[in-house]
Design a protein that fits this description.
Structural class: alpha+beta
Number of domains: 3
Shape: globular
Number of helices: 10
Distance between the termini: 7 Å
Strand order of the largest sheet: 1-4-5-8
Number of strands: 10
Largest sheet: 4 strands, mixed
Length: 398
């Protein structure tokens, strides 16, 4: 497996290309020197920095080129390929609020990548202000009827009436709504199945849309959206009518590799903390690091994180080559999220009572990582993707 533009070293081992190693180092140093100190005295479960801290961080990140890393450079983003996005994702979660607010917001918040499939006027009206101003957006797919199979589960209707569509229905577990001005909503414009789904750019603060927090085990609550005769101009349709499912699938597949990379970053941060603790902490006349039970927990964590990271790199590498990365992305998502959960759990055990105290970020990461096995498609659904590939006779290997 070779990364884009990489060359094998003299021993034949695979390695990241130099430009991505530099990106990794730059991101890591920015997190250590800028983000973590700014976040240090914020409340344990906070999910935002005050502007007097955030704005200077964002200005520094822009100068480094660490701004809206997914968005195309022609529109003001960093325009990184997917492997580069995964590198940044892994490093930018290594702070208290990193699981859901990467780098505490210092790197901005990319609009959904599918907005760049829209018309130029749509991009200029909606995406560009987000990139320039550092705002948030949301993507609304999941409904009370389910979210893992949007082709069949979506029941929110969008019925055309003259030059606009009238939306009615409910979305649930939608992140970022409270901090956003607009989002992309998927609704049914036709019959059942994938061909009946369309995508719309929806402005949040208009009549006919009610939204409210939906409390969960993380402090950064998702939201419930209720549409009641909400009017969307026909010009706000993204792409063609009935083509929304392809946009949803593209967005989901693209997000899975960085999503998994971020969980690996939290696992790695927890492991680094546990290693430092084990080498310092003494109980009954010996360091924790000298006890085999602890050594094996550390070793298993390192092995699994390395494997998970390479699975993420493979998925990103395939996507950057223009190949179908759906299978690899599902594998990376399952293994990455489940590995991170196991690693943080082990690290808490090594810390003992301190591991579950709010003096440390581990208990927060533990809670937030639990959601990651459900978000972006639960593990069971991704296992179905892998099983269908195997049982369908498509047994190609990387």
């Amino acid at each position: 497996m070779n990364a884009p533009h990489s060359m094998p070293n003299p021993l034949g081992a695979w390695e990241l290309p130099e430009e991505l190693r530099m990106l990794q180092d730059t991101t890591r140093r920015f997190m250590d020197k800028e983000v973590k100190p700014a976040e240090a005295d914020e409340p344990h479960d906070s999910y935002s920095l005050p502007d007097e801290k955030l704005k200077p961080l964002q200005a520094k990140a822009r100068k480094l080129g660490l701004w809206c890393v997914q968005s195309p450079s022609e529109w003001g983003g960093a325009g990184l390929n997917l492997l580069g996005q995964c590198i940044v994702a892994e490093e930018s979660v290594k702070c208290k609020m990193g699981a859901y607010i990467a780098a505490c917001g210092a790197f901005g918040f990319d609009p959904p990548n599918i907005i760049f499939k829209g018309r130029r006027d749509q991009i200029e009206k909606y995406a560009v202000p987000v990139i320039e101003g550092g705002g948030k957006t949301f993507v609304a797919i999941t409904e009370p009827s389910g979210g893992s199979d949007p082709g069949r589960a979506i029941r929110t209707r969008a019925d055309k009436k003259g030059d606009r569509y009238i939306l009615n229905g409910t979305k649930i577990f939608i992140s970022g709504v409270g901090q956003s001005k607009w989002g992309i909503v998927f609704a049914r414009t036709g019959g059942p199945g994938r061909s009946g789904v369309s995508a719309f750019i929806v402005e949040r603060d208009k009549p006919g849309l009610r939204w409210s927090p939906f409390p969960v085990i993380r402090s950064y609550y998702p939201y419930e959206l209720s549409f009641e005769d909400y009017e969307v101009p026909a010009e706000n349709m993204l792409g063609e009518e009935g083509k929304g499912f392809s946009f949803a699938e593209e967005w989901l597949v693209h997000e899975r590799a960085p999503y998994a990379a971020a969980t690996i970053g939290l696992g790695q941060a927890a492991l680094d903390m546990a290693i430092e603790w084990a080498t310092q902490r003494e109980t009954f006349g010996a360091r924790l690091a000298d006890r085999q039970a602890v050594q094996w927990q550390l070793a298993d964590s390192e092995i699994e994180l390395r494997a998970a990271r390479l699975l993420v790199y493979e998925a990103a590498w395939q996507a950057d080559r223009g190949e179908d990365s759906k299978l690899a992305a599902s594998i990376a998502k399952v293994y990455g999220t489940e590995t991170a959960g196991r690693v943080v759990d082990r690290c808490i055990q090594i810390f003992g009572g301190m591991g579950v105290s709010k003096e440390m970020p581990l208990e927060r990461w533990y809670r937030e990582l639990r959601i990651k096995r459900i978000g972006e498609g639960p593990s069971e659904v991704h296992r179905m993707v892998v099983a269908r590939h195997l049982l369908g006779g498509r047994r190609d290997r990387p």
